[in-house]
Amino acid sequence: MATTPSPLSPEHTVESVAGKQRAIQRQQDARDRGKEGQDSGQHAVQTSAVEQPAPPLPAQHLDKPGLEADMELRPRFMAENYRGSGKLEGLSALVTGGDSGIGRAVAVLFAREGADVAIFYLDEHVDAEETKRCIEAEGRQCLLMAGDVKDAAQCREVVEKTVGAFGKLDILVNNAAFQEHADSLADITEERFDETLRTNIYGYFHMAKAALPHLQRGACIINTGSVTGLEGSSKLLDYSATKGAIHAFTKSLASNLIDKGIRVNAVAPGPVWTPLNPADKDPESIRNFGAATDMKRPAQPEELSPAYVFLASPVCASYITGIVLPVTGSVSA
Which residues are catalytic? Predict the structure, then answer.
C-alpha cells in the first residue's frame, strides 16, 4: 500500500533548504572577496622564543658527503635556551654521523646532559673537530674516529675504542646516512642502491651488533629514521625504502632486547637543515627546502636533538621502547 509523503514544514521545503544553502554560499563568497590582496598566511610557523630560518634559503650545492663548514647558512645546533639537568650524567654515548647536522646537535646536548661522546664519521674532519670543541666546552670528553659504517670490522673497532676510552657504552645513536635523489627508478643503478642500502641499513646492523656485548641493562639504542620512511618520497625511492626498514628494524630489535632491559627507539625527522640536503638537491630546490611542511620551513638540528635526549634518558623514557617518534613539522605524519 502506497504511503503519502509527510508534508514538509515551511523551513524544510526543498526550495527553502536550497535558498538557505545559497545564502550561506553568498556570505562565504563575500568573505573570500574581502580577503583578496591580503596576506595568504603562508608564512613560516615559529613556536618558540627563537625565530628559525625559513624559505627562501640560500641556493647552494655541496660535494658529498657535505661539510657543514661550507654551508652558506650554518645549521643551528647549540640550542642556547636548553639547560642541562644531568639527565645523562656519567653515561657514555657513541653517535655515528655525529660530525654535523642532527648528529652534531645530539652529541652537544648529550654532553650538556653529562655524557661523554664518541663520534664516528666518514671524512668530514673540519666539522668533526668543531663538534669535539663544542663537546669539550660542555665539560665532557670527546673521541673522534673516521671510517665507514658499511665495514663491520671498522664498526667493531670503533665500539672497542669507545669502551676503551670511556670504560663503557650506554647509548648508541645510529645516524649516519647516504641520500641521493633520482627522478625515476630507472636512474637508480644497482651500485647506487647498494651504497644506500649498505650505508643506511647495514651500517645500523653492524653498529648494533658490535655494541650489544657492551650494553648493560638500562642502556639504549636510538636510530634515525625519516618521514620518508613513514610516507615515502617519489624522488628518494631507495633512501625511503631504507628508512622504512630502519623503522621495522627498530621495533623488531626492541622486542628482541626487551628482556635484557635494553631499549630501542627511533626518531623520524622531517626536513632538517643539514649538509645532507644541499649535498643532494640542486641549488634552486634548496631555496624552498622545507616549505611544503605545515610549518612552512625546515627544522634546525637543535629542534631535533631534545627528542634524542628524551629517548636516551632513563629518567625520561624508561618505559618507552619500540617507538618511531615523528618530528616532522606537519600534522599528518
Answer: 239
Q: Is the dihedral of CA 269, 274, 278, 283 positive or negative?
A: positive
Question: Is residue 56, in this structure, part of any structural domain at all?
Answer: no
> Closest by alpha carbon to 66, among 97, 112, 29?
97
CATH number for the domain that contains residue 143: 3.40.50.720
Parts of the chain with a pLDDT under 70: 1-12, 14, 35-42, 333
**How many Cβ atoms sit within 10 Å of the Cβ of residue 207?**
27
User: CA-based diameter of the chain, in Å?
Assistant: 92
Mind listing the pLDDT tens digit for each residue in 189-248?
999 999 999 999 999 999 999 999 999 999 999 999 999 999 999 999 999 999 999 999
In DSSP terms, which residues pair with 299 in a beta bridge? 272
Cβ contact 113:86 at 8 Å: yes
H helix intervals, 85-189: 101-112, 125-137, 152-166
| Domain contains 196 | yes
The range of the structural domain enclosing residue 143 comes to 86-327
CA-based nearest residue to 150, from 215, 199, 99, 196: 199
Residue 146: strand pairing partners: 121
Grid cell locating 279: 649535498
- With vertex at residue 72, the alpha carbon angle to CA 71 and CA 77, rounded to the nearest 5 degrees, is 60
Residue 109 belongs to a domain: yes
- The answer as to whether 112 is a domain residue is yes
- Cell readout for 141 is 670528553
